[in-house]
Amino acid sequence: MSLANLIARETQRFLETHPKSAAQAKALDAHWLFGAPFHWMKDWAAPVVIIAEDGEGAVLTDIDDNTYDDFCLGDTPGMFGHGRPEIARAVAEQARRGATFMLPTQESAEVGALLAERFGLPFWQTTLSASDANRALIRWARAVTGKSVIVVFDGCYHGMVEDCLVELRHGRTRPDAGLIGQVFDMTRTTRAVSFNDIGALEAALAQGDVAAVLAEPAMTNCGMILPEPNFWKRAQALATKAGALLILDETHTLSTGPGGATKTWGLAPDALVIGKAIAGGFPAAVWGVSAELGEKITAAKTSGGRSGIGTTLAGNAMGIAAIGATLREVATAEAYDVMLAGAEALVAKLRAVIAKRALPWCVVHVGARAEIVFAPEPPRNAAEMRPALAQGELNHALHLYLINRGVLIAPFHMMMLVCPATTTQQIDRLVAAVDSFAEEFARESA
């Protein structure tokens, strides 16, 4: 059976088991651009959008009463599971007392102390998203250094931040092909370098005009790419020598451990972004800075509230309550122990399937996050990853096959998350579905 025939068969199977979702999709088309409240919601392999009914722990149910073992978890915001009662209680209680005041609540001091203790940076600010946090830190970095350029890594994703939507092609920084409606040439103030290439990073910094290096500790959006040994130690030394700040975006790598990759790997950034999961799925993010950078930022802010950075809803009372509940009750060391053990088991079982089926695939793994990569060895950078990501038909077929067997993984690539509620049985069902697909794929490839 060819992949095209497999996709056609699985498409028909999906439509037969999702009649209510198919009908509701037509109603969505009437008034929502792209047929959904946000166009990314249509980027799944399903022929029509799945309409969610509810989620609890690691299980999602749609309006057709199909249940799914959810390894996507909202593409990370639900990293600790859906419907957490701790978050629901904190947000509901604060909503009853008032959602937002443009004033701090009494809990704000405790939440600041919890952030400082957990992530090792003394001063913090809140935003509504990691995009806002990255955008703010880029602006503050330029303000305090007097330099205009930022360095990012090819294949990165730091939210909807125009400065970061560039790519490296033929040794030159180019605007990202997907950047829509941008009139300013971001390559004038952003340089992209290849991940794990210390020589390229040193050359980018040597020009003396770099305000900050903005990076994920491990790349996760263009496929998961791990740093080579000592890469970050050498990168930080180069940034310090060049007078540039190091900003680490832990939006995805928070899955590494209670203090993210920063604490787990002993990194020492000047600034840190924590997004998505820090409030248990409630829209909130935070950024923190060292004492030295905090002093410089304070000195740079010269008048009232006007800095052009932030929104009136940043630091809202419900968001602070959700962050506090997450840090105290949800993202605990005990929860991470369960998540990390589950991910280790998942990775071992997936690698066994790949070996048994002699597939030219590998599994890359950071903490509670794992990813199947359609390459025999883990890529070192985005250029090496792109051929694996270009296998669109294979990617589509496997995603749709898993959906039809009650398994959800991240729709954009082959990423899976294990949450505290994920069971051994759910892991085994995911592995069995991959194995079943691999058997059919091997027959098709023979």
The Rg value, from CA coordinates, equals 22 Å
Quickly give the CATH architecture of the largest domain: 3-Layer(aba) Sandwich
Percentage of helical residues? 40-55%
Major sheet: order of its strands?
4-12-11-10-9-5-8
Low-confidence stretches: none
Q: What is the string of helix and strand elements?
A: HHEEEHHEHEEEEHEHEHEEHHHEEHHEEH
Number of helices: 14
Anisotropy-based shape: globular
Strand portion:
15-25%
Q: Please name the fourth-level CATH homologous superfamily of the largest domain.
A: Type I PLP-dependent aspartate aminotransferase-like (Major domain)
Average pLDDT, rounded to a whole number, is 95
Describe the overall structure:
By secondary structure, the protein is α/β, with parallel strands linked by helices. The chain folds into two domains: 3-80 and 333-445, Aspartate Aminotransferase, domain 1, CATH 3.90.1150; 85-330, 3-Layer(aba) Sandwich (Aspartate Aminotransferase, domain 2). 42% of the residues lie in helices and 16% in strands. The protein is built from 14 helices and 16 strands. The protein has helices at residues 3-17, 19-31, 85-97, 107-119, 130-145, 198-205, 231-242, 260-264, 291-300, 317-330, 333-357, 382-389, 392-403, 424-445, and strands spanning 52-56, 59-62, 67-70, 123-127, 149-153, 166-169, 172-175, 190-193, 210-215, 245-249, 271-274, 285-289, 362-366, 369-373, 407-408, 415-417. Strands 4-12-11-10-9-5-8 form a seven-stranded mixed beta sheet, sandwiched between helices. Strands 1-2-3-15 form a four-stranded mixed beta sheet. The chain has a three-stranded antiparallel beta sheet with strand order 13-14-16, sandwiched between helices. Strand 2 and strand 3 (67-70) form a beta hairpin. Helix 3 (85-97) packs antiparallel against helix 10. It is globular and about 65 Å long. It starts with a helix and ends with a helix. The model has no long low-confidence stretch (mean pLDDT 95).
